[in-house]
């Protein structure tokens, strides 16, 4: 493998608060260690369309506190093809990019693995609000998204309580319920419906509402993961089966925005620093993660083969203390 002199950085997939902090750490650590740094805009699209720009210390000033990503992000259908992957690698060679740091989720890492097979070393950083990267206990953006959701639900609670209503709130997480479960516990939701834990609407929602009504409870919060969805239908079902006026709210992409929390800024900074360390050591095609609250790394192949499961005790905790 040729000596690495120039490192590119890109963000791919859904944006997540803290991505800018990660970009900042990658660029400044790279410069501190003597590398030339370039930014690749709009993810893998930028490699195919040659959207490349030089990055210096001032390129990443005043971004650590900003949500979104200054490098932009996009899905790239062309990159799913071998021809697209070859074009991306050719762009790297044309601009003298010897390695790429990819900030994103599983799909982004699969892209990094494809780029590595074309001869471009890559390092992956887990950036997704869903916290669904199996090789890492925590992903950049997760804490901010949860805090945003808690803030929104606390506001909804005011009107829910004022009208003695039931609010059914759908949170993001297409295939993972980590946001929903933890936010549900944090907001005192009566029920948390997530893909990882089987549920029965009659037993886990209707019967629990009726039971708590008898103890004097008059308003209810039900949180539902995006992967389950159907918040509108669930609200209608609840109203028809309990007589309690019910409303559905889908928080949607508001959860992706906003200033990143301290945890997301510091985690992103640590991960970005580690990415450059790995390239400096000649450790290529790795994914940075957190295990037992420590920064670690895995081969991309190993990382993508790992599976993540939700602690079932969280469900028990939720049911026990939300009556």
SSE layout and pairings?
Blueprint: E1 6-11, H1 19-32, E2 36-40, H2 44-49, E3 52-55, H3 82-94, E4 99-104, H4 106-117, E5 122-126, H5 142-162, E6 166-171, H6 178-187, E7 191-193, H7 201-213, E8 220-225, H8 231-242, E9 246-250, H9 262-281, E10 286-291, E11 294-299, H10 300-305, H11 312-321
Parallel strand pairs: 1-2, 1-4, 4-5, 5-10, 6-8, 6-9, 7-8
Antiparallel strand pairs: 2-3, 10-11
Helix pairs in contact: 1-9, 5-6, 6-11
* Outline type: elongated
Helix content range:
40-55%
Number of domains: 2
Number of helices: 11
What keywords describe this structure?
Rossmann fold; alpha/beta; 4-stranded parallel sheet; 7-stranded mixed sheet
What does this structure look like?
The longest helix has 21 residues, at 142-162. The protein is of the alpha/beta class and 323 residues long. It has helices at 19-32, 44-49, 82-94, 106-117, 142-162, 178-187, 201-213, 231-242, 262-281, 300-305, 312-321, and strands spanning 6-11, 36-40, 52-55, 99-104, 122-126, 166-171, 191-193, 220-225, 246-250, 286-291, 294-299. 42% of the residues lie in helices and 18% in strands. A hairpin with a 2-residue loop joins strand 10 (286-291) and strand 11. Helix 5 (142-162) crosses helix 6 (178-187).
Short description:
This protein is of the alpha/beta class and 323 residues long. The protein is 42% helix and 18% strand.
């Amino acid at each position: 493998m040729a000596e690495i002199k120039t490192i590119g950085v890109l963000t791919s997939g859904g944006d997540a608060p803290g991505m800018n902090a990660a970009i900042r750490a990658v660029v400044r650590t790279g410069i501190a260690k003597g590398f030339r740094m370039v930014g690749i805009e709009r993810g893998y699209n930028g490699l195919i369309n040659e959207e490349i720009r030089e990055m210096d210390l001032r390129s990443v000033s005043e971004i650590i506190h900003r949500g979104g990503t200054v490098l932009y992000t996009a899905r790239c259908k062309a990159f799913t093809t071998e021809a697209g992957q070859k074009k991306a690698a050719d762009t790297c060679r044309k601009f003298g990019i010897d390695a790429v740091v990819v900030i994103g989720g599983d799909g982004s890492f699969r892209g990094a693995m494809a780029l590595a097979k074309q001869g471009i070393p890559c390092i992956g950083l887990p950036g997704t609000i869903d916290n669904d990267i199996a090789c890492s206990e925590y992903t950049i953006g997760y804490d901010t998204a949860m805090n945003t959701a808690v803030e929104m639900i606390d506001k909804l609670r005011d009107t829910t309580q004022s009208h003695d209503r039931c609010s059914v709130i759908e949170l993001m997480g297409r295939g993972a319920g980590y946001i929903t479960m933890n936010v549900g516990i944090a907001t005192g939701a009566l029920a948390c419906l997530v893909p990882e834990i089987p549920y029965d609407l009659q037993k886990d929602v209707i019967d629990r509402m009726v039971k708590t009504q008898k103890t004097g409870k008059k308003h209810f919060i039900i949180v539902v993961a995006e992967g389950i969805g159907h918040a509108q239908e669930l609200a209608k079902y609840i109203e028809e089966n309990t007589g309690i006026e019910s409303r559905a709210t889908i928080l949607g992409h508001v959860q992706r925005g906003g200033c990143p929390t301290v945890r997301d800024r510091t985690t992103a900074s640590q991960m970005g620093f580690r990415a450059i360390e790995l390239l400096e050591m000649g450790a290529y095609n790795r994914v940075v993660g957190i295990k037992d609250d420590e920064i670690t790394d895995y081969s991309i192949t190993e990382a993508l083969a790992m599976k993540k499961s939700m602690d079932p005790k969280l469900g028990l905790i939720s049911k026990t203390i939300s009556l």
